[in-house]
Amino acid sequence: MSDIPDIKRLKGGRVECTVTFTEAEITPAEEKALHELSRDIELPGFRKGNVPMDQVREKIDPQKLFETTVHHILPPTFEKLIKDHDIKPIIHPRVEAVSRDPMTLKVVFIEKPEIALKGVNKIKIEKKTPEVDDKEFQKMIDFMLDKHKVTKEVDREAKEGDLITMNFHGTDEADKEIEGIRTEGHQVEIGTNVLIPGFEDNLKGLKKGGEKAFTLTFPEKYHAEQLQNKPVTFHITVVKIEEVSKPELTDEFAKKELQSESVEDFKTQMRTSMEQQEMVMETQRRERVLMDELTKCTKVELAPELIDEETRQMVGEFEQQLSQQGMNMEQWMQASGKKAEEVMADMKNQAQQRLTLRLGMQQLVEEKEIDITDEEMDQIVEGFLGQATPEQRKEVESAYQKGAQAYEQLKWQKKVEKALAGMLE
Fold this sequence. Notes:
Elements lengths: L5 E4 L4 E7 L2 H16 L14 H7 L2 H23 L9 E7 L2 E8 L4 E3 L16 H13 L3 E4 L9 E9 L11 E7 L21 E7 L13 E15 L5 H7 L5 H35 E3 L3 H21 L4 H8 L3 H28 L6 H12 L4 H7 L8 H20 L1
Antiparallel strand pairs: 1-2, 2-4, 3-4, 5-11, 6-10, 7-8, 7-10, 9-10
Helix pairs in contact: 1-3, 6-9, 7-9
């Protein structure tokens, strides 16, 4: 580099380095670029990739040559700047061309920003005693009995409690079919109220093969936004009517079907299980509140580049989730009724919150000097690997050796859990 780089350490952990390169530095990088680009050049009398460099230069777009030259000159530049100026980047640097002659680049590194925790020791999270509501308890018993119900097809009018199999579709006010509503072989038990209000009542009195059309308005808070508060005319055809018989909860039934000694034993097991679930949910609730409070206590200025990087990562994660569901981003936006700019704004806001919490957790772990000993990690890793099959263990065991990435990630996770548990005591 011809001159000492202009280094500016700015807020948010930004380190701006303006670098001007000498001809001696540019020439070898440009030669590499020419050779790389020459592979696709064809001229009469020359084999592909063997065109003389002076003729290659005439054929190549100058902008493309400049970009490729920059690509080759950057790695050693990054290395030198980081070493000479003790820069500790946490994401890949951003590069901007300032001028082409002389070649001057602005390289922006992002270091871990300064973090302050304000009022974190005053955080108090209310602890509620988990209770099992009697109505919810009875619902769970009914659910367990429902799993053992039997049905028998009947030839009569449908009534409360019957299981109906039907085909239906929906039309709008212009009598045009609404996409996504047509369903065949749909089953519903009249009286369970799993469909929108009024739907199941309209099934009463119908017989097998019976048809009916009726109009209902979707609830204001329906999960599909495009249907909220919309009147829809349903056209149904009953395929089958079945009478439902549910078993009676007796000691004999409890022994035979519920692996319990008696009705009371089953109820005790059920209530204990529900209480444990309530305790888990209460712990998760308190952790969410704690993390919200910790985010509020974390004072940090985030560099725009850091937010952009986190946003890109979150978008990638979301696209992967959609892909697993057989959907892409465009299809999801169409179904949700959201525009691209709205999605990106939401993602950016979530990225800021996620970054703030992550940095706050790092600071908390450092300030409270949370650590996991090697002995503790040995037990944690063994417990983790102990759940794997011999084949699975063989594949992943090396990743959980001390110093390996998976080992360090697990250790960090346990540090965070230890810090949270300490604050929730």
